[in-house]
Amino acid sequence: MSKIPLHYVDLRAFCYATEDDKRVEQALEHFLPEDVDLERTETTGHYGDRILVYSVRVERADELRHVLDRLAAGPDVDRVIDELDDRVTENTELFLSLDKQSAFGGTTRLGDGITFRGKLEAYPATREAAVENARTLLTELVSDSTA
């Protein structure tokens, strides 16, 4: 895969008071190369409980490839390809929800806990063009990972 049709990928996870913040960090780091740092913001929930918000924006090509390789290694990538019409917005963004517990264990699955938002390149900037670019990208990733 020579060119990646993504401007950036944002990953975000919440760490609630009942969770171990180091484990949530480790879950997000599953998707990231070693030299990428997470941003950590502390906020307060409705009942005064502490919530940490971990987020990162990945923009460089090598870092994007790493994130996408992790995504393609999961068993749910074919499902994502089938559901692209529902996962790409009019603003050419691809949304996924990834399982935080699986990521902590070193695997990639769809689920709850980690939000993946990728800004797709599309010329013209239409939803249809973005869906096609995402389909091509993910299909190539799957074929590269099985080769």
TrEMBL record:
InterPro entries: PAB1135-like, Ribosomal_uL5_dom_sf. It comes from the Archaea. PANTHER family: EXOSOME SUBUNIT (PTHR38816:SF1), EXOSOME SUBUNIT, DUF54 FAMILY-RELATED (PTHR38816). This is RNA-binding protein. It comes from Halovivax cerinus. Gene3D superfamilies: 3.30.1440.10. SUPFAM superfamilies: RL5-like. NCBIfam families: PRK14555.1-1 (NF011141).
